[in-house]
Amino acid sequence: MPAEPDVAPATASGPVLPLDLEPAQGDADAAVTRVYLAALQHPEPSRSLLVAQGMRSDVVDRCLAVLEDRGLVRLHGGGMVEVVPPDISLPTLALTYERRARETRSAAHELAQVFFQARSSSTAPDPGSIRILTSLDEVAAATAEAIAAGTELVRTFRAPSPRTDAIFSSPLHSHEEPSRGAGGRVLDMMSVYDTRILEAPDVLTVLEARERGGERYRFTSAVPFSCVIVDDAAAVVDLSAFDASGSGSALVRSRPMVLALIALADHLWALGSPLHRPGGGPAAEQRDQQILSLLAAGAPDATIARQTGVSQRTVERRVRALMDQLGANTRFQAGVQAARRGML
Fold it and tell me: Would you say the pTM of this structure is higher than 0.90?
């Protein structure tokens, strides 16, 4: 797993920001957030001031460039940093994410139409670019084939489907094994799961095992179908959410289509939220940590109750109390606020 950037945490509490919705590798978003919060806390922030707080200069420079690109700060000569008032910059940033969400939904619809047309076309597609799969077994075999030829990165996004159910019902030890590509090389894995998957039995146990196997994952709502993308060379599109047999799914090697699926995967990753596991401490505190983490992932009360082993009425009471404690107006804000305060 990537190491955490060498930056010091902010020394005082600050506002909660949805900065982790932007795609990033490892914990780079955490570094960006810390630099932003540190800049917010000083009336005349500067690059040298941030470096003097113990942050590495190269990390500060990268984070300031990201913040300027997002419209949250303006950089001036002499290393001076102007923080754009959050009541102006954050609504603008939110509009950007909303636009990307619309683009993601539009791309998902168009891609699904491409695959359905390929399935029903009287003209067989080029077998070198698209291979139509007719069963769940073929989907599994094509996925193994694509991953075995991989060299660097596997992106996945998964909707609830028979294929997803089969994966999560596999023996626990199989989830702990890293994904290996050509020559036995361990591949990096980034996965985005539909929030509805949290309703599956023992899903948190399975996710912990997959994390031990090297997977990084996030949750978001309304993932339209499932897909596994290996590097930029191949993708397995699983349409078993539409046909339980898996018929109509495809192994894709057409480079333009693989790149389009990568763009969709990266959009979903940008929109997703991580799921934090409870740390040590009293049982009640661990339960609240798990509730907050599931809130941030978008889980409804019934799902939270099932995963935490308490009644839905208890969850509703604790959610309301935690929102009041954190000063949050929405459930999602409560989860993000807790993460920023180190409660997760």
Answer: no
